[in-house]
Amino acid sequence: MTLSRTHLTAIALFFVMALAVPFIPSDYLFEAILTPFLAIALAALGLNLLAGYAGQVSLGSAAFMAVGAFSAYNFLLRIPGLPLLLALLLAGVVTAAFGVIFGLPSLRLRGFYLAISTLAAQFFVQWVLTNFNWFSGGDTSGIINTPPLFIGGVAIDTPVRDYLLSLAIVSLLTLLALRLVSGRTGREFIAVRDNELAARVLGVKILRVKLMACALSSFYIGIAGALWAFLYLNTVEPAGFDLDRSFQLLFVIIIGGLASIRGAFLGAAFIVVLPLLLSRAGAALLGATFDSGLVDIVEKIILGVLIIVFLRIEPAGLSALLARLRLDRFFASTL
Amino acid sequence: MDWGFFAGVAIAGLLVGVMYSLVAIGFVLIYKTSGVLNFAQGAMVLFAALTFVSLHEEGVAFWLAFAITLVAMIVLGILIEALVLRPLINQPPITLFMATLGLSYVIEGAAQLFWGTQVHQLDLGIEDVPLPLNTVLISQFDLFCAGVAGVIVAALTILFRYTRTGIAFRAAAEDQYAALNTGLRLPRIWAIVWAVAGFVALIAGLLWGARTGVQFSLSLVVLKSLPVLVLGGFDSIAGAIVGGLIIGLTETLAEVYVGPYVGGGIDQWIAYVIALIFLLVRPTGLFGQRSVERV
Predict the structure, then answer these.
(1) CATH number of the CATH domain containing B245
(2) Which of A77, A245, B19, B189 yields a CA-CA distance of 20 to 30 A from A179?
(3) Are A57 and B94 in contact (CB < 8 Å)?
(4) Which of A126, A311, A314 is the best mutation test for B, with the most CBs of B within 10 A?
């Protein structure tokens, strides 16, 4: 198996992220920034496979995160002794199956007709998880708590371990995604996105490719949802996977860069850091008159403006800006 | 089965449906002439209602507040056309859709930044005494809303059929290049359409605001009107009305008769499932034109 330069760069960056652990003194950085960043990046990567590469925009990603989180929870709850990694894998598979079911309309619909039909998944899943408490092990409001997690007898119970587990899973899946999009699968996705008719004439099986994109994307998003719930939040309710979360993921890939793997990471970093920066800046500028409600509002306006600006000026997002700065060449030559 | 009760539920559902249609009409106007699915329509409804109610609470008289808000909506429409849509001409529809998603965040945020986040009560001075019709009670306020919707649809139909501006709208909707060739100025037409959509948003905002209170959740009516559009077709005002009636009716009936067996709350998603099933059978919607790009 030969590795491209992109792969090597990615592997190098992931190693840096792992080796940096002893140099980061506070748990806060792991708990509040790095772990959620990894989970959001993975979910955005999944959405990017579907929306960026295959051109099928979904507004229901948060629902698939919820499916992933709640199925991982149920596998661990109902099958005693099931290894954590296997539970995560199964959760991904269940979410992929869901993705295929809700992806069926994509065979007849395109553009925002499809986007609207994915809202059905968003509302339906949230309703099921809230109303049927079987899914949350009997909790009447559908809230789930992270069960004790072990990998090979080691308890995953500190922020650093949460981070390292997320990093390991996200690295593996990212490398797999890089491989997929640079191969036949990725080219078929792009062909369907750019011109369905031409792709069909060239012998691309549209039906198979679209459902494959839905399944693959949901698989990633489902695992991301489980990481988000278990390693970051620890306590999660169905309302935590609402429409705003779906929009957030869409914004991550627009800002980071559509049809770009690193775009998902750049966008995720931006979206995780932005509110923290804003609340710091707000507290410094306004002092006592400042409240967190204001941060939310300002963050909203900034995000909205950025979406419009990026779509207008840099449709390929931060990823394209980075490429223009030639940073990746710098990394490839020095690492 | 209690048919009197059934009729009451059905009528209430139809009237709710009219409220959905009111919002949906704003979408249709913009989609018809510029091919943009404007997700920010809900944010415009919120913005209009918040501006009006805040002015009114400051002591500005009803009609003056209405006029000021209308001017604000027209300015907003012109700004959106110039700053957001014109630079994105010739982009795929889904890009425009995502731009309006960003736009909705900006408008919602701006409205809350200006006017605050508290809930306002809005009293339009319409008495809401239930009218007894045989054994069924009908909300007088809902009937008023239905009347307003009827007037708007009639006015828009006249506008589109008989006025120069309206015929220009239809030309732009039919074929943008041909319209440009005959000397129509598309940016100006779009600005006017956005202004009209702003007016519809203001009306919808006042009626919804009077019903539910003026607050952030007002912008969520957009989510109720999307399935209406799918059902009725994105480019048909008649479709928006019929779609609204169907969605309102089935949603209310389902909630009352099926809801209790599954724990309630199915009105959150049933409209989408109806729309989805419908899309699979007839992707153009009830009244949509064949030429709209689908597969």
Answers:
(1) 1.10.3470
(2) A245
(3) yes
(4) A311
The pairing of strands A144-145 and A235-236 is antiparallel
- The answer as to whether A251 is a domain residue is no
- Domain containing A136: what range? 5-18+26-239
B103 contacts on A by Cβ (under 8 Å)? 304, 308
Q: Confirm whether B268 is domain-assigned.
A: yes
Q: Do β-strands A235-236 and B131-133 pair in parallel, antiparallel, or remain unpaired? A: unpaired
Residue A87 lies in a domain: yes
Kind of pairing between the strands at A235-236 and A154-155: unpaired
User: What domain count does chain A have?
Assistant: 1
Q: Are B109 and A297 in contact (CB < 8 Å)?
A: yes
Residue of A nearest to B101 (CA): A304
Distance of CA A38 to the CA centre of its chain: 8
Chain A nearest CA to B249, separation (Å):
18
Give the count of alpha carbons within 13 A of A279, CB side only. 8
| Cα distances (Å, whole numbers) of residue A86 to A72, A223, A228, B20, B23 | 9, 11, 17, 46, 47
**Mean pLDDT, rounded, of chain B:** 86
The chain A residue lying nearest B282, using CA atoms, is A108
Interface mutation vs chain B, best among A192, A195, A300, most B CBs within 10 Å: A300
| Chain A neighbors of B263, CB-CB under 8 A | 131-132
Note the pLDDT tens digit of each residue in A3-62.
677 888 888 888 888 888 888 888 888 988 999 999 999 999 999 999 999 999 999 999
What are the pLDDT digits (tens) for A59-83?
Answer: 999 999 999 999 999 999 999 889 9
Q: Mark yes or no for CB contact B265/A130 under 8 Å.
A: yes
Structural domain harbouring B93:
3-281
Identify the closest residue of chain A to B220 by CA–CA distance: A243
A28 touches chain B (CB under 8 A): no
Q: Give percent of chain B above pLDDT 70.
A: 96
Measured between beta carbons, the chain A residues lying within 8 angstroms of B294 are 108-110, 113
Instruction: Please indicate whether, in this complex, the C-beta atoms of B283 and A112 are within 8 angstroms of each other.
Output: no
CB pairs under 8 A between A and B: 127
